[in-house]
Amino acid sequence: MSKKRHWLTRLRKHKKLTQQEVALKVFIDRGYYALIESGERNPGVEVAKKLADLIGFHHSVFNLESNPFTSALGHAPMVFAHCDMDLRYTWIFNPPNFGADDPIGYRDDELNRNAGTLALQRLKQDVIDQQTPLRRTIPFPTDTGSRSYVVYCHPLFNDRLELIGVATAATEVSTTDDNFQGK
C-alpha cells in the first residue's frame, strides 16, 4: 500500500478546493482523484500536469516519491524542496525540524522566524526575481549551536516555461552542536 499524499491534500485545501472540484477541473472521476490523494494510484503524466497546474506545484513531485535514491538519501544531511511563487512549500524531502508537523503550504518565516530561515526565504525570492540559479551558505541557529547548509536554489518552470516557483537542494556543511550525531 502506498503512502498517503498529505502534501497533495494540504495544497488542495490551501486552494480551498474539494476533491470533487479538483476532479471536475482536470476531467477525471472524483474516486480516481481520491485514490491519487490517498497514494493508492499514481496519475499518468497528463493528469499529473493538470493537477500541478490547478493546485500549484511541479508535476515531477509524483516521480520524486518513488525515486530509487529516496532510501539512500533518507538519512543524509540533505534537504530537497519545491516552493511556489509565494515561497510556500509544495513538496519537501528530508525536512529539518521546523516545529510544525508538516511544512507544506507554509513559508519559512511562518515555520520558524530566525536569521537562517529569513536568509533562506531571501535566497528563494532572489531566484524568483532574477530567474537565475543561486547558491549561498546559510547558518541556521539551533538550541545547542548552529548548522550551516550550502543551499542551491533554482527557478522552477512548468512545461510552458512559465516560472512557477523554486527548487532547492541543501547540504549540511558544518555543525557546532555539542551532541550532534546525525539525524
Largest beta sheet: strand ordering: 2-1-5-4-3
What low-confidence regions span 5 or more consecutive residues with pLDDT below 50? Answer: 177-183
User: What structural category characterises the helix and strand content?
Assistant: alpha+beta
Q: State the separation between the terminal residues, measured CA to CA.
A: 26 Å
**What is the CATH first-level class name of the largest domain?**
Alpha Beta
Q: What string, H for helix and E for strand, traces the elements in order?
A: HHHHHHEEHHEEE
Protein name: Helix-turn-helix domain-containing protein
GO molecular function: DNA binding
Domain HTH cro/C1-type: 8-62
InterPro entries: Cro/C1-type_HTH, Lambda_DNA-bd_dom_sf
